[in-house]
């Protein structure tokens, strides 16, 4: 059985995420966060490190989703 932990984000961000995932296959903020974190971890594991360009691309994606300012 998979164990889970809780990650806290500001309510305002959660509201923005809810709006962002409307009409997508993501059922919740948790689904989106799991997807994003898995993507980052898999990318890191495949290359053994993120290049500066990959890090910047991920940063821009997270900014676009409202996770970063």
Automatic annotation (TrEMBL):
Name the GO terms of the biological process aspect: regulation of DNA-templated transcription
**InterPro entries membership:** Arc_rbn_hlx_hlx (IPR013321), Ribbon_hlx_hlx (IPR010985)
Please identify the protein, giving its name as recorded: CopG family transcripitonal regulator
Q: Which organism is it from?
A: Halostagnicola larsenii XH-48
């Amino acid at each position: 059985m998979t164990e889970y932990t809780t990650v806290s984000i500001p309510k305002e961000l959660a509201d923005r995420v809810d709006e962002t995932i409307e009409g997508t296959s993501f059922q919740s903020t948790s689904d989106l966060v799991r997807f994003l974190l898995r993507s980052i971890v898999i990318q890191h594991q495949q290359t053994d490190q993120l290049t500066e360009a990959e890090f910047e691309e991920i940063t821009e994606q997270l900014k676009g989703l409202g996770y970063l300012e």
